[in-house]
Amino acid sequence: MSDARPAQADPILPSQLDLDTWRILKKALKTGHSDRGICVGDHEASLITRFMLEQIETSGLRIVPAKPTSEMHQAIKEALDQGKRMSVTWVKPRTKQRWRYQAAIDAAPSWRRGYELDQAPENST
Description:
Blueprint: H1 16-35, H2 42-58, H3 70-78, H4 93-107, H5 111-124
Helix pairs in contact: 1-2, 1-5, 3-4
């Protein structure tokens, strides 16, 4: 019996989840401003959100979902597969766990890819 897994989407390519993540973050920032009486247009909200998220990333933090996506779960499962391990020698369980977490973070939806998807229709007109 063979291991019949569905074909995984390329993690580099933007997905709808990336776009949804970007739009949720942008809407949250826009709503926060609106609640304080500051009217922000769509373009300005995009710029402010992008700036805020870039500042967060320069601090060494990442925005990831509180509930892991199926892609994140799959990345955790495959993190120690042959060819994906960062070492062929024996490593401590703590190191393996760090690799699993890193794989999950790398597989998380990316606001950057969502931002690029969101901007693409504006650039093509």
